[in-house]
Amino acid sequence: MASELILLEMKVSPFAPRVKIALREKGLEFEAREEDLLNKSSLLLEMNPVRKQIPVLIHNGKPICDSFTIVQYIDEVWNHKSPLLPSDPFERARARFWADYIDKKIYPIAKKLWIAPEGESMEAAKKELLESFKTLETELGEQPYFGGKSFGAFDISLITYHCYFHAFERLGNFSMVKECPKLVEWGERCMEKESVSKSLCDPIAIYEEALETRRILGV
Amino acid sequence: MASELILLEMKVSPFAPRVKIALREKGLEFEAREEDLLNKSSLLLEMNPVRKQIPVLIHNGKPICDSFTIVQYIDEVWNHKSPLLPSDPFERARARFWADYIDKKIYPIAKKLWIAPEGESMEAAKKELLESFKTLETELGEQPYFGGKSFGAFDISLITYHCYFHAFERLGNFSMVKECPKLVEWGERCMEKESVSKSLCDPIAIYEEALETRRILGV
């Protein structure tokens, strides 16, 4: 039986695109349904009653929630091609550690920078974001991917911020190429993959969304 | 070669005991070293330079960090007995979802309740904590364990809060047996396992630590 895969998503989000990349890496067909967070669908509320958040992957009627958990699920169920998690338990633990780091560090700092007024708050958010990016750059080292020689779950967790780089630079008035050249090279390398480039948003649209959020909040 | 296992821990914490339970479920010997968070050891800083947090499991000199990541690592490396994660990918995703829920919900609310002044703040923290416990109780349903028929990683994530129940009750002035009878029964069932009872702290000592924290903060 062919699998029925429905993805409840929001295009402008660092989370749902991770699932799309993983599905595309595995060569799977899926139906994506855009959610409106101000008016959540009854399907979303039914499928993720505890968190009520996207992304949710509905696989033959059964929901799997949380982006990194979904990526691991996809890797475990469709293990015939493009392994996303390393086979070695130590390397797998490393991928999980950094996926968690990205969620606990990058997302909250990015949110701060998004709405920080010009001046001290913006400078503090920018400093914190660049420190985290530099920590990640050190971890990347001279490898082509965070997963080592091949693209994997650790890369997937971070690459969905690639389309936010432009907004970060414009809002924080800095240059990613100057500050984190290896991270930019890594991002370009990942973007050569169709699974990635097809799943990420337009950086200009994201920057415009940031400006709109700031306008609404009166920043 | 016998594995050398060193656990950098703090006894009074919901995190490190998870690792001890997993190691004991697998019948593994380990050396536990207590850390002082106000004066972290050079070993901790070397082994977890990014987060600088316990627990860290050092396996033959290599560090694995973050309690749930360590539990998964232990389960993957020593897969000959006592499986901790379910073999079915959907059930494994469910265990990961709830482990994440416990870390993102229970821990922050418990911290709030810990230091909330009597009155409105305490009532709000207590309400939020009980709501989360009831959500978990619904998920448990009529099963003996969160893992179903057998004790597993989802149980491990939550059981390390069992020794905090007494402090929660005393601080919030409520009865766990009245509010969440099934959760209490589940906790007692888990405590019959030596792996669990040997790894958890004395509830009275935890309550005293809460009172001491409140005294220092002037609550």
From TrEMBL, chains A, B:
Record flagged with keyword Cytoplasm: yes
Enumerate the InterPro entries for this protein.
Glutathione-S-Trfase_C-like (IPR010987), Glutathione-S-Trfase_C_sf (IPR036282), Glutathione_S-Trfase (IPR040079), Glutathione_S-Trfase_N (IPR004045), GST_C (IPR004046), GST_C_Tau (IPR045074), Omega/Tau-like (IPR045073), Thioredoxin-like_sf (IPR036249)
**CDD domains annotated for this entry?**
GST_C_Tau (cd03185), GST_N_Tau (cd03058)
The UniProt entry's GO CC annotations, sorted and at most eight, read:
cytosol
Query: Which stretches make up the GST N-terminal domain?
Result: 3-82
Q: One MF term from GO for this chain?
A: glutathione transferase activity
The UniProt record lists the GST C-terminal domain at: 88-217
User: Could you confirm whether the keyword Secreted appears in this record?
Assistant: no
Q: What class of enzyme is it?
A: transferase
The alphabetical list of record keywords is: Cytoplasm, Detoxification, Transferase
* A single BP term in Gene Ontology: glutathione metabolic process
Its EC number is 2.5.1.18
UniProt subcellular location: Cytoplasm, Cytosol
Q: Which reaction does it catalyse?
A: RX + glutathione = an S-substituted glutathione + a halide anion + H(+)
Query: Which family is this protein grouped under?
Result: Belongs to the GST superfamily. Tau family.
> This chain belongs to which protein, by name?
glutathione transferase
